[in-house]
Design brief:
The protein is built from 10 helices and 13 strands. The strands form 3 sheets. Strands 6, 7, 8, 11, 12 and 13 form a 6-stranded mixed β-sheet that branches. With 306 residues, the protein is α/β, with parallel strands linked by helices. It is elongated, with a radius of gyration of 25 Å. 47% of the residues lie in helices and 22% in strands. Helix 2 packs parallel to helix 3 (62-70). It starts with 5 loop residues before the first strand and ends with a strand.
């Protein structure tokens, strides 16, 4: 079973790899590369939390490896700890100037190795938590509006670049004010959390994004999804929420429904005459129409073609 954090060990000497693996494998998932090229490829594929790299290796030195890692968007923020038998301060200065996080000197002291790696892992995990909090809605544990705005911009550009469809669902809990007025806001918060979890369970792909749009509204972004596919996902969500009964504290069987507006854009020729605002606006109009038609239903906007 993979552990919480991972390390990529880069060394051309099997004895060093064996020693570091013995010291660190009880605490971390270990990946191994025996040369610089393999290290760069493996770092891009596995995205380890920390990289331990020998400085002197045939073909590609550790200095060249870190320079390549720092020049790539995928790997630029991975801390690199250099493994070295060199004692000259000029070599250590060069590594730090290139962005190395720390040094581990040979021969290995197991306690020092563990502590230096642990220090970097703490920084990595703290930064990851800060990043998570900055993009997450605290109540529903879905993405927040800020993160949604960033992702929809990225997926919009990808859709134009790769000529793939992009779909958006805007979802609104029906008569949510009545729930708050009848049971109180704490129960309303519980319903929001449960609805968010139900929506998450209906999304099967890692690329699909759910965000709290505001109040009792959610947005679901579906990359590379046609109108038919998006409508199917929307109906799956609507049905799951309609048939589920929520409980909060001593209150049982709180029932709610949801209305959904669907918008899809298909890129044929990038004429740039349709904007992200138009895309969202069409989903919002479809949601409004679902409300007008009696709620607890899915309505689709006309397909936008760019």
């Amino acid at each position: 079973m993979d552990k919480e954090n991972s390390i990529l060990v880069v060394d051309d000497e099997i004895l060093n790899i064996t020693a570091l693996t013995h010291i660190l494998s009880p605490l971390y998932t270990i990946y191994v590369a025996k040369n610089g090229i393999s290290a760069i490829n493996l770092a891009k594929e596995r995205l380890p939390d920390v990289i331990l790299s020998d400085v002197l290796m045939p073909g590609m030195s550790g200095f060249e490896v870190i320079a390549e890692l720092k020049s790539n968007e995928l790997t630029e923020n991975i801390p690199v700890i250099f493994i070295t038998g060199l004692t000259q301060s000029v070599e250590e200065e060069k590594g730090l100037e290139l962005g190395a996080a720390d040094y581990i000197h040979k021969p290995f002291n197991p306690t020092i190795v563990k502590l230096r790696v642990q220090n970097q892992m703490q920084i990595v995990n703290q930064m990851r938590m800060i990043q998570h909090l900055s993009i997450t809605d605290a109540l529903t544990n879905t993405s927040n509006r800020r993160h949604f705005n960033s992702r929809i911009s990225q997926e919009w550009q990808r859709s134009m670049r790769e000529s793939t469809p992009l779909s958006l669902l805007l979802l609104d809990i029906d008569d949510f004010k009545k729930i708050n007025d009848t049971y109180g806001h704490l129960v309303g918060d519980s319903v929001l959390q449960n609805v968010a979890e139900t929506i998450k369970r209906c999304l099967l792909r890692p690329m699909d994004l759910i965000a709290r749009w505001g109040g009792e509204e959610f947005a679901v972004l579906l990359p590379n999804t046609t109108l038919d596919g998006a409508t199917s996902v929307a109906e799956k969500i609507r049905s799951a929420i309609e048939t589920k009964q929520y409980s909060s504290g001593e209150l049982l069987n709180i029932h709610t429904t949801i209305s959904i507006g669907v918008s899809t854009i298909t890129t044929v020729v990038p004429l740039f005459d349709i904007t992200v605002y138009d895309f969202i606006s069409e989903a919002d109009k479809a949601l409004y129409r679902a409300k007008e038609l009696g709620k607890n239903r899915v309505c689709c906007a006309p397909r936008l073609i760019m």
